[in-house]
Structure formats: structure tokens, C-alpha cells
Amino acid sequence: MSDLEAKRRYWQANLRLVAACLIVWFVVSFGFGIVLAGPLDQVSIFGIKLGFWFAQQGSIFCFIAIIFFYAWRMNRLDREHDVDEE
């Protein structure tokens, strides 16, 4: 495999990872927090409506989890494509 092909494969893998993270973030923040807030409000956990929780806290927690997942997955991806800093 040529160097240019290896770089292209690494970049494509990186773009797929970013796209997947953005899709999850969009579904949680917009989908659960806005679009599905009404149906989710039918469920209460500790007296808090689930739609409200996703709009106020859930999307933030999910975003933080996505950041850690992205860092972990990029480290693995760097090692797989031999571009890690170690």
C-alpha cells in the first residue's frame, strides 16, 4: 500500500468516527431533548420528566461521554495506522 493510500484510509476512518459521534450527539440533543421530549416526559425518574432531563442534563453527559470515546478511539486508530505519538 502506498503512503498516499495509507493517509487516505486513515483520514476516511477519522471522518467516519467524527460523523458517527456527531450523529449520536444530534440524536441525543435534538432528538431526545426536543423532538421526542413530549413522549419522553411520560416517563419520570426520581420525579424528573425524562424529556426535560435529556434537554437539560442528558445531552451534556452524552457530549462528555462522546469526547472521551473519541479520544480513546482516535488513540486506537492512530496506533492501527502507525501515526501515534509514542
Briefly note the structural class of the backbone. mainly alpha
For the report, how would you describe the main beta sheet? Answer: 2 strands, antiparallel
State the end-to-end distance: 23 Å
The mean pLDDT is 90
Q: How many beta strands in the DSSP annotation?
A: 2
Range of helix content? over 70%
Low-confidence stretches: none
Rg measurement, Å: 18 Å
What's the shape? elongated
Question: Strands, helices and their partners?
Answer:
Layout: H1 3-35, H2 37-40, E1 44-45, E2 48-49, H3 50-80
Antiparallel strand pairs: 1-2
Describe the structure concisely for a colleague.
This protein is mainly alpha-helical and 86 residues long. 79% of the residues lie in helices and 5% in strands.
Throw out a few tags for this protein.
mainly alpha; 2 strands; single chain; two-stranded antiparallel sheet; 86 residues
Structure description:
- With 86 residues, this protein is mostly helical.
- The protein has helices at 3-35, 37-40, 50-80; strands spanning 44-45, 48-49.
- The chain contains three helices and two strands.
- The chain has a two-stranded antiparallel ribbon.
- A hairpin with a 2-residue loop joins β1 and β2.
- The model has no long low-confidence stretch (mean pLDDT 90).
